[in-house]
Specification:
Layout (H helix, E strand, L loop, with lengths): L7 E7 L7 E7 L8 E9 L3 H8 L16 E2 L3 E9 L12 E4 L2 E2 L20 E2 L11 E4 L1 H5 L3 E3 L7 H17 L3 E4 L8 E4 L6 E5 L3 H10 L6 E6 L6 H10 L6 E6 L3 H9 L4 E6 L4 H7 L3 E9 L14 H6 L3 E3 L6 H13 L8 E6 L3 H9 L6 E5 L8 E2 L5 H10 L3
Parallel strand pairs: 13-14, 13-16, 14-15, 16-17, 17-18, 19-20
Antiparallel strand pairs: 1-2, 1-4, 3-5, 3-9, 3-20, 5-6, 6-10, 7-8, 11-12, 19-21
Helix pairs in contact: 3-4, 3-9
């Protein structure tokens, strides 16, 4: 199979550490060497991590001294792609026409352009797509040796999985990775050995604090473990409407009861549901120090606190309740991103209908809308994820309440270049 590939393409590139340094520009379509792939980007997510790259520039840990002012980078760490050309040494493994979702966190030292890194990349063990490796915010993307060596392309097994679902598998993989860090112990009898189980406690009580885009993914993904009660908590009652609209009807016939509660009522509701014992699992999906501090007090005996929301350096130290850790045997866990296995699990969940990515989408549009989309994310003016389609003509951002394969197909057909 061969595909027609143009000589130039549109790409979102960062030329320095400022918002004004984002440019949507025409650049040559790259040519893969024998160990690389050229892929068409079918859908790309707009991730808040781009704000950190823009703010920190070459000081960002994953840039390793690479200066976008001297060597512009193509942004975009979330995406779904289709192979359009393959180098002769990788063509048999990655056939033209095959679709993939990407794990952008590439656990492999830099291979190309080492001169662009600090100290020629000495000591670097990790790179990332959308950072120093070409990103998804372009019509075409070069998949380099590092990504393939780290097995960071995960095949989309079915054409029934829409493009946007593949793109949203990256943030979902972060959620899967985080929830797998929870560990609970059980004993069949007082004299029996302890048996560890990964994940949220089945039949227990889980609290998700924060009903933003990542908190919503956590809430829906938590249903995999069939908790008895799921509390979704936020300071703003209107942000809880999503849980009432999506999760309550879904669980009407299941063993899980959903409770969308404002932060001021959280402890009262939890106390009632747990008979005063507290939660088995608490996931803090907001980066607010005071909230993370206070969340320790929601845990019951053996409970797990997941500090999912990142805190800024300088405001990242918490007050540990060591008495609760000691006498209540509570645990505090965290994680940073997902792995290829987590993306594979995210794809499986989407294909099996265990999670509906379309309920997490808020806006769609064309590639050139990225600066506006990122500004909305920065100002927290969008209530959900944003996905851009690089292959369509200029199309303003469109708000969507839900999205599926049919809606995506009709949208793409209506906006062909």
């Amino acid at each position: 199979m061969t595909m027609k590939i143009p000589k130039t393409m549109q790409a979102v590139r960062l030329h320095g550490p400022s918002f004004d340094a984002i440019r949507v520009e025409e650049v040559p379509v790259p040519t893969p060497n024998g160990d690389q792939l050229l892929v068409q980007v079918d859908a790309a997510g707009v991730c808040s991590s781009n704000l950190k790259i823009i703010a920190q520039g070459k000081e960002h840990a994953l840039l390793g001294g690479w200066d976008p002012s001297e060597h512009p980078i193509t942004l975009g760490d979330e995406g779904c792609v289709t192979v359009v050309a393959a180098g002769n040494r990788v063509a048999a493994r990655y056939p033209v026409g095959q679709r993939y979702a990407t794990q952008p966190a590439v656990d492999h030292p830099p291979i190309n352009h080492r001169e662009c890194y600090r100290n020629h990349a000495e000591g670097m063990q990790k790179v990332a797509v959308g950072y120093t490796l070409p990103g998804h915010l372009a019509e075409y993307m070069l998949v380099t040796e590092e990504t393939l060596a780290a097995e960071c392309l995960l095949p989309v097994a079915s054409d029934e999985v829409p493009f946007f679902s593949g793109a949203l598998c990256e943030p979902l993989s972060c959620v899967i990775s985080a929830q797998d860090r929870h560990v609970h112990f059980s004993q069949q009898s007082p004299a029996a050995s302890r048996i560890p189980a990964l994940g949220i406690r089945q039949g227990g009580i889980v609290v998700v604090i924060g009903a933003g885009p990542m908190g919503r993914l956590h809430a829906e993904a938590a249903l995999r473990f069939r908790p008895r009660h799921l509390l979704v908590v936020d300071v703003a009652d209107q942000r809880l409407d999503w849980a009432r609209r999506v999760l309550v009807p879904r669980c009407a016939q299941s063993e899980t009861q959903i409770h969308a509660v404002t932060a001021d009522r959280c402890k009262e509701v939890l106390t009632r549901l747990s008979d005063g014992h507290g939660a088995d699992d608490v996931i803090v999906a907001v980066g607010i120090r005071e909230v993370q501090n206070d969340a320790q007090q929601l845990l019951g005996k053996g409970g797990v606190l997941n500090l999912f929301g990142g805190l800024k350096k300088g405001k990242h130290l918490l007050d540990l309740d060591s008495i609760r850790v000691h006498y209540q045997e509570t645990k505090i866990v965290g994680s940073s991103g997902g792995s290829p296995a987590d993306v594979a699990e995210a794809l499986r969940m989407c294909a099996a209908g265990e999670l509906d990515p379309g309920q997490h989408l808020a806006m769609v549009g064309s590639l050139d809308q990225f600066p506006q989309a990122l500004q909305l994310v920065k100002e927290q003016l969008v209530d959900g994820r944003i996905v851009l389609y690089p292959q369509i003509c200029t199309t303003p951002l469109v708000e969507v309440e839900s999205w599926d394969r049919t809606a995506e197909r009709d949208f793409l057909q209506a906006h062909q270049p």
